[in-house]
Amino acid sequence: MLSRINHRIYAFPTVLFLFLTLVFVSAGVSIQSEERAARVSKANTVAEQVKISLEVFSTERIQALHNVMRNWPTFEPNQVDWFNAQALSLMGMQKGYSSLAFVNAKGNIEWIATPNSGVKTRLDNRLVGEPMSELGLTISSMSEKFESTLIFSPQTQHHHILIGRAISPQEPEHGYLIAGFDVQSILGVMLGELVGPQFNFKLAADNAILFESGVLVNDGTQVSLAPFSFITRDFTLSMQSQLSPYNTGMLVIVIGLIMTALVSYVLHKQLKGAVSLSDSQQRYLTASEASLDALLIYQPSDEDFVLVESNSYSRYLFRGACDVLHAMTLSEQMRYLELHDIPKHVQSVAETGVPYESHLPLTSDKVAPEWLKIQVVKAANNIAITVRDVTERFKAQQDLKRSEEKYRRLVDGMHRHFVYTKTVDHTFIYVSAGLEKILGYAQETFCKNEPKYVRQVPDETFEIREIIARGNKPEPYLVHYQSSGGKSVVLEFSDTPILDDAGALIAIEGIARDVTKELVLQEEVFFQANHDQLTGLLNRYAFDAQLREILLHTNDSAEYTPFSVTGKSGGINSKTNVTAINLHREPAKPSVMCFIDMDRFKLVNDSCGHPAGDKLLKEISTIFRQFVNGQDLLARIGGDEFCIIFRNQSLDEVTQCLDKLLLAVSNYRFVYDDKLFFVGASIGVIEINESTQSAEALIKAADNACYKAKHLGRNRYFVFRENDSQMAIDDSENQVLHALHKALQHDGFELYSQAIMPLTVPQEEQGAHLQHYEILLRLNSKESGLISPGLFIPLAERHGLMNKVDLWVVDNTLKTLESNPAHIDNVGKVAINLSGITLGDEMALHKIAQRMQSTTVPAEKICFEITETTAVTNLNAAKHFISTLRDIGCSFALDDFGAGMSSFTYLKNLDVDYVKIDGSFVRNIVHDPIDHATVTAINNIAHSMGKQTVAEFVVDNATAEVLRKLKVDYGQGFALDKPKPLAHRVQWRVKLASA
């Protein structure tokens, strides 16, 4: 028997040692294999990333060269300058080029552009004039593919790739474009960023190693990619992840062997200690097994007691925690079982010898019993404790207690909810603890004072109580309360009537929840759906809906009251954008709708960008808000379009308000990035009454009225009258359009002229100077006589006829001058206006240039006027237009200058001879110091640029005198000369000369 036990003590630890040794050795070998595979995977992944990066780099540069060749100018007078600017711009945006060369059609080098940075290059402008072969590359003029070569430069000690192609194989006269790339510099930057020092790699092309790092070791972890294209050359890449200095597998084996030996030794010691059980312990176990109670024997140790013996029933009684309890002292066991008073009683029994007995609830969930009967007696120097499970006796009482606690925790732990009980007269007698978290009132305080905290009850309160009185459950309803912090809180109540056996109402129970946040969220969503996000005004959708409601109740003669918010919803008390209709029938009062379109808004957007336009719209909407009250509607319905509905106001009252609004807009100055802009508002006004047919017709009529205001001079309003039906407006426009078409076919226009007088010359000497006048246009209709340009020019622009009108004016002005050669001798400049459409029409430019080259009128006597707005909006087209006609000999004037005050930036880029100061600054220059300062600034800056100035709208002699003091060169206006037919001016001058 003893030999068998000794065999177990030594054999089992030995077998365990051998088994664990095998496990750790296998794990170490497996880790080494996985580490090798990981190195291969990592090297392959990085190699693919390098390949992709090089291919992307190559594709972007090749595509950029294609773009340069596609944009190669056809008529550029200096292709070398154009190429140099494009090459420097390209090399500034895309790094990696060592040089860009332009070779002419004869194969000679025209120019070589190199980057400003320290990129190494083997090419420079010392090769200009040399044949293309000096670059080391031969290119076919008919091929659409890039030719390339790889060259090692002794100068830079780097490899270079040269690629080139004919700029246009179909047009070989454009020459060739050649690009050079410093391969070592490109690879050094890109591979340094992507690979890092933990990889060995080698990059080769054409049997030459272009870039390498470290030494590739042939241990099965090297990765080689298939050849790939980089700047039209095939590259190969080999890569290997460096070996870690630590052999993880061997470390696992060594540490595992040490731990295996330690575990085997500890197991051997435990087995050896288990054999030392005494015979006395065996006898005790036999006796204690017969007990029906758990028997525990404790021995005193360091002011505590240690468990020395326990029977099998104790292991059953404390099942699940027996092993944990066995290793603890008595005090620790009692703390673990949450029987904190027992150690004190055990200590008393040990000192006095008086037994202790008690029934204790076991609240710990670590053991099965719930109630215990404990007896403590002194046995010699030890303590014997017997424990019996008496759970069944107290189970019913304990179950009831747990059920009550569970219900209370459930009710009191509800988030933003609480339950309640009310009497039949709706007085609260119970609320759960959740109410205090919502309103901040104690439960008893709320039940006693609930009516004091109510701020708003449902309108259908009486109906709800009748439903409950009948024993039926009503729909949930909302009640507004004031919290202890003074905030408004909205609670949703769901009442359930409680009936007795006879069906009589005895109480009301239910659950309530805090819906304040939900309602605020609903208001915010509603606000965002119905308001413009930029200005906070009503949007087009909400405006259309409310306009239809207004029309509906205007026609029904019902009094209508809209409620709206002008700011973001901020709480449950804020009013939402809803429409409330008072069903009490009263005669509807008139309303007036105003359709507003901002003038010069596009100039701000084009000059400074959309952020500036957004800022302008916000500030303008603030001005509009100052002229509406709570019952009016103000909306932004488009980009720069607004609508106002003035409710319960007559047309006369509204027009008085609009006068103030327009004055405020005209006095407003928009400043952005040190640029000053003047804006205006064109307003269409229409009255809303019972005869209004639909919202669409109303908006269309207001839009047309706005259009009329815009073309009557801007920053004004135009009232649509009841007798001015839309059909009449359309008929009038159709008549003008018909007359316009007829005039173009049958020369129905009439040329007028207005003199542009020199202001720096005394009046008595002005007759000795050559004439300078502007050509004006009138449309002559047999049905309605002369038609103002303010009517037919906007129609011509809208219907794409303005370039034809401009060509007619140019041609007929030249015809008139050609037929009066004597008059030409007395003319200094004849100014002809050109529209923005003509300015961007290449065909119109060609026709005007041909006409100027074929006329007998000297080109230097013709001055073309273009407006500031069209010049700034189409800057490139304007520069091309001006340069083409200036080459012929014509001069140019920039009309309406200063409207945006951003034009000083562009004035340097526009080769004009005259600057015509916008009349809005001139007409009030005598009385307005701001206008006086503006004209002074424009005049001084124009003179500093070598340009002459012309002041428009000189309405009286006082204005002319101020302009003379400012040394403005010319003036134009009724005070100096009134418009007259060109034929009269020509004949009068001829007669005067003959006399």
TrEMBL record:
Residues 472-527 form the PAC domain. It comes from Alteromonas mediterranea (strain DSM 17117 / CIP 110805 / LMG 28347 / Deep ecotype). SMART domains: EAL, GGDEF. This is Diguanylate cyclase. InterPro entries: Biofilm_reg_signaling (IPR052155), EAL_dom (IPR001633), EAL_sf (IPR035919), GGDEF_dom (IPR000160), Nucleotide_cyclase (IPR029787), PAS (IPR000014), PAS-assoc_C (IPR000700), PAS-like_dom_sf (IPR035965). Signal peptide: none annotated. Pfam families: EAL, GGDEF. Gene3D superfamilies: 3.30.70.270, EAL domain (3.20.20.450), PAS domain (3.30.450.20). SUPFAM superfamilies: EAL domain-like (SSF141868), Nucleotide cyclase (SSF55073), PYP-like sensor domain (PAS domain) (SSF55785). Residues 733-993 form the EAL domain. The chain crosses the membrane at residues 246-267. Residues 589-722 form the GGDEF domain. Keywords: Membrane, Transmembrane, Transmembrane helix.
